UniProtKB/TrEMBL annotation:
Residue spans crossing the bilayer: 27-50
Main location: membrane
Subcellular location: Membrane
Domain of life: Bacteria
GO cellular component, one term: membrane
Name the record gives this protein: Uncharacterized membrane protein YqaE, homolog of Blt101, UPF0057 family
Keyword line: Membrane, Transmembrane, Transmembrane helix
UniProt similarity note: Belongs to the UPF0057 (PMP3) family.
């Protein structure tokens, strides 16, 4: 299941984070990082998913 979330996080980082933690602070951080640059959003999303 984590592999699917990571693939989704690469395609659309906020969705991957939302599937893992919901509408928490990490979701909003990821939205901001994705808007600032796609790569930081991906890195953060994969980190959030792999951390759990």
């Amino acid at each position: 299941m984590d592999l699917i979330k990571i693939i989704i996080a690469i395609i659309l980082p906020p969705l991957g984070v939302f599937m893992e933690v919901g509408l928490g602070k990490h979701f909003w951080i990821n939205i901001i990082l994705t808007l600032l640059g796609y790569i930081p959003g991906i890195v953060h999303a994969v980190w959030v998913i792999a951390r759990r």
